[in-house]
Amino acid sequence: MNIQHGDKISVLYVFIDASNVWAAQKVKGKMFDFEKLKNFLKNKYNAKEIAIFYYTAYPANGTRDYSLDEKHKFFTYLKKGLGFVVQKKELKRIVIHSNEGDSVKEKGNMDVEMTIDALNNIDKYDIAVLFSGDSDFLALVSYLKNHHKSVYIYSSKNNISEELRTGGDGYIDVLTIEEDIWGRELKYRRQK
């Protein structure tokens, strides 16, 4: 089903929270094929133009016992191969002190960057698609709708807040999309 606003051909901006997408991919057992996903969205919303922003945080060098080269090659593919805007930052490492000893927690929330990009580009698009399930985005969704933007939420049933699921112009569970948007099977690293 294509979503059209009358006979108008739209400009579509897509904002992808990588951690939300990762949760859906783990459930499906497959990676998104981002080229297929881009084409699916462009056709679904009858978009003459599409811009896709991808937000991710990655581990600092030396914090993993495996190479991060493949992750950075993937970011380069999204940017140079598919024309995505890739917003990335290193995971913040926070030392937690407790009676049991020190531990390190990693944090890499990209909600602010996503919101800033959605607002800075508000005059460039008619339709916004958010790949996130975080209820914190309800304020952004409401703001965009109040500025005459259509907003659609993509997430999965186990990773969507009720507020966000019902707050936009539509909610799509990525696990139920019938078109082929999936790529290769997920491979997991062996535990040492």
N-to-C CA distance: 46 Å
User: Which CATH first-tier class of the domain at 10-54 and 108-185 would you pick?
Assistant: Alpha Beta
Average per-residue pLDDT, rounded, comes to 89
CATH architecture label of the domain at 10-54 and 108-185: 3-Layer(aba) Sandwich
* Strands, total number: 10
| CATH structural fold name of the domain at 10-54 and 108-185 | Rossmann fold
Stretches with pLDDT under 50, minimum 5 residues:
none
CATH H-level superfamily of the domain at 10-54 and 108-185: 5'-nuclease
The description of the largest β-sheet is:
6 strands, parallel
Q: Given the helix and strand composition, which structural class is it?
A: alpha/beta
Structural notes for this entry:
There is one protein chain. The protein has a 6-stranded parallel sheet with strand order 4-3-1-7-8-9, sandwiched between helices. It has a two-stranded antiparallel sheet with strand order 2-10. A two-stranded antiparallel sheet has the order 5-6. The chain has helices spanning 18-28, 34-44, 69-81, 111-120, 138-146, 162-167, and strands at 10-17, 30-32, 47-58, 85-90, 92-98, 101-107, 127-131, 150-155, 170-173, 182-185. The mean pLDDT is 89. The radius of gyration is 18 Å and the shape is globular. The protein is built from 6 helices and 10 strands. Strand 5 (92-98) and strand 6 (101-107) form a beta hairpin. By secondary structure, the chain is of the alpha/beta class. It has a domain at 10-54 and 108-185: Rossmann fold, CATH 3.40.50.1010. The termini are far apart.
